Amino acid sequence: MDARRASRTVIDPKVRHVGFFTPTAEPAPSRTQSGPAIPSSPPLSESPASNSLSPVMIPPSRHLSDTVAIRTAAVPVPESALRRKDSGEQVPVGSYNPSESLLGTSPVASSPSSRVGDGTLEFSEENSVQWYRRSGSGKLASSLPGGGLESATLRTPLEVPEKSAMVVSKVQNEVPTSSEPSKAKPTKAERRALQEAQRAAKAAAQAEGRKPTPVSGGAAPSKPVKQSSQKKETQKKDTPTVASSVVASDKKGGDRPPDRRKDVPPPRMQFDDKSRVEKAKRRAVVNQTEAKNRVELFRHLPQYERGTQLPDLESKIFQLDPMHPAIYKVGLKYLAGDISGGNARCIAMLKAFQEAIRDYSTPPKKTLVRDLTAKISSYVSFFIECRPLSISMGNAVRFIKSRVAKLPISLSEAEAKSTLCSEIDRFINDKIVIADKVIVRHAATKIRDGDVLLTYGSSCVVEMIFLHAHELGKQFRVVIVDSRPKLEGQALLHRLVAKGLTCTYTHINAVSYIMHEVTRVFLGAASVLSNGTVYSRVGTACVAMVAHAFCVPVLVCCEAYKFHERVQLDSICSNELGDPDAIAKVSGRTDVNYLDNWANKENLQLLNLMYDATPADYISMIVTDYGMIPPTSVPVIVREYGREHLY
Amino acid sequence: MAEVQGLVNELATKLRKRKVEGSRETARLTAELFRTVISQQRVTSAALVEVVRDVGQKLIAANPVELAVGNIVRRVLRIIRDSDLSLEVGGLTLVPQGDDGDIVEEDDKPFLLSDAISQTILHQPSLVAQLESKPNLVRHFEGKADKTPRSWQFKHQIIEGVNDLIEDINTCHEQIADQALELIHQNEVILTLGHSRTVKKFLYAAKEKKRSFQVYVAEGAPKHLGHVLAKELAEKHLQTTVISDSSVFAIISRVNMVIVGVHAVMANGGVIAPVGMNMVALAAKKYAVPFVVVAGTHKLCPLFPNNPEVLLNDMRCPSELLSFGEFSDCMDYSIGSGAPLLNVVNPAFDYVPPELVSLFVTEIGGYHPSYIYRLISDYYSSEDLVLQQKPAS
Fold first, then answer.
1. So what's the pLDDT on residue A366?
2. What family is reported (chain B) (predicted)?
3. What pLDDT was estimated at residue B42?
């Protein structure tokens, strides 16, 4: 199992080049052995495999890497690096035999990137809490710009030190269990790489020794205290000798199952759970009254009366309790529906946080990290009361919390605040603004002269694509499909026609009529989930389905920060319900008034779903800032992207 | 005679202005008009066929998309021919018309050329028989124009037939609804789109027999008649949920059966339905939800569809989608360039291919789409399949 881990660590770095980039490194000659044996490796990871490989692969245990990460943070690495060398030179340790040691060394051969792979392994399922913890060890690279394609490549060489250290400690664990025949001796180049890595590791360890990082603390508010204290214990044990670290990690192996369970995303609030709803209500700022005619199928989602909260909240604006005015303002805008669209909502939230952080001062007898995290959590729960968070916003919140959690203690309050503000700015810039530019550039290559492009609703990135292609002088026609009750397409129609694009406007029912002439479908997305499901404005699934039936390619344009490791099969389990009155009222049609006082009819419910889940089968391609990928490669992005919260 | 002409024109105008709502209403009005026309006529069956065909052509031209008119015209023609036959069996040698109710007759249809050709080759003898049959028929009618009591009896029979037809049209909802219990079980979740009286009666019938079930109604933009249906169902204490058309895909995975009414049933088993139905049918197919079409036999059209999305479609007013203010704002931008930058497409109908339909429920029972051709040959005479014969010859 451990040997396998090692091999995966080597393979994964290539995964960075998601999309159709040319791989820079050739596959290693032993690829034939390793290739077929990688069950969960994404389609794009056909890049260099290591020599060490076992034919069957079981997903690596995550907790192991956790301990490794922690150890690298706290343990003086030079020691272990030395040991590494020893094992490389086949000094028996425990029940360890020479041929296996070769195996063990192989991961180090391509070490520069092995760390990357290791990181990605865990993040596929890990939740934010672990990211914070890991971030302690990842400090070296944290000074680098967080996102973007370029930064990724930049980052890799710098990661070497920690990585090799980690590999080292890992190898020790691996050794006893691996029973693989050795595949190939490390080449000279590989050995040199190894040595360099170890040297760098030494330096890194020294650097790290100087500033110990807050490992758990306020970073993991949702985690039981027991867990973190246990971790600290392991760290302490690790410090004296490496041997004991092995023991410790073995011990850790014993309690793996609970650890693993914590890694899946925490379950969302289920509104059919009465006791929890009551509890949440007591804390709530926004007064919600349950809607009368609730839809039975959606009991698990909040169904509240609309229109009553806003005046209530507005009246409360001057009795500012703990809420920052900027937060309050944005929350009200969510509630009123003034801000909509994934990116707009996310940016508004981040800007509000930024202001709140600027005006923040640590109360006496509290630490900034803990208190600010708690503050942000309370802000977030206020936002949720106003309108359920979108997945993209959830990701952004996770990002901020991780940033807060890993603020070095040595920083003064002012420094910490300015760091956080600039981090937020960078997030907005890298993940949204630049990402959109990259997407537009990619997607525009898929537009040919004479195309008829269909889009549904109003997605800002799709609009940018059309405008960009128009600026490039491509001749095409746009079909805008719209649907009630939001009719977002009308605004898009306005903007596109104003720019001189030829547009056809129709409603969603006519989509099978219009699909005959369409050559490409461009859709936006609220989120892309790990099983390839595209979670988007309701109706997207219909459009994609019809396009699929008519053999028209469907391109989903979505920034990678909206990807999420959750999976979803239908649109029922998790969704957002809009105002049911919007269904009853047809804008601009006074003749349609059959449902005017529907609330009085006990058997009549109105259901205004906000999102739906498009199955991956209907999606031909997802255009993201990492390139153009098939929906099956989404977990790769999630894994890779999760890592970026770290550095 | 003049008032008959007036009535015809009146209905034609109504049809042209799309003032008649629903194919059942159209069918009923058409049948009643023919009853008047026939009762006013003092001619023999041959002339009657011509007269009915003339009136029929006028009505069809008024609204070529309303296939129910053509169906009724053909049904009336069939009644005339049948009563004529039954009268003449004694007096004359039987005209070789035996193939009347056969699949073979379908080679008269204008649309599927390849089919027609293959059938022509396969059934050469019967085609010959058919070609010869018409002159025979006409010739022999001419001979007996003077037999007054007979022609009176003949006309009476026809009127009876048309009355039966009207009766059928009026009662088809009830007869279809009678089958509801066999298709709807307890706690069923049913989805429907828009508003159809047939569906409404169907669901009422199941509810009255103490079945309790749940109905999702997609509103059916741009008419939003789903709201009407939902309101009416809720008043009958059916658990009703209105959803927007875009949520159909999201909801369909929790639905047991889709029951819809349609505009017309084509000879291949495909249906012309209110816009949006193809989307619903595709979603139902994806989740293997039975897609049941309830339709009276007056909707049965003996034509094969050829590019039905375009040829058998109506374009409705854009203002249903885009208010005039919005529209003119957008048009302002395109004035400079000459060509309009904005098109608004608002079709009235959708074509659902037969492979997406699970079942047809008609007043004479339930049928698979592949069997529709047989029903057609039961109801229509092969000579009438193409009504516009005169201009051609």
1. 85
2. Belongs to the eIF-2B alpha/beta/delta subunits family.
3. 72
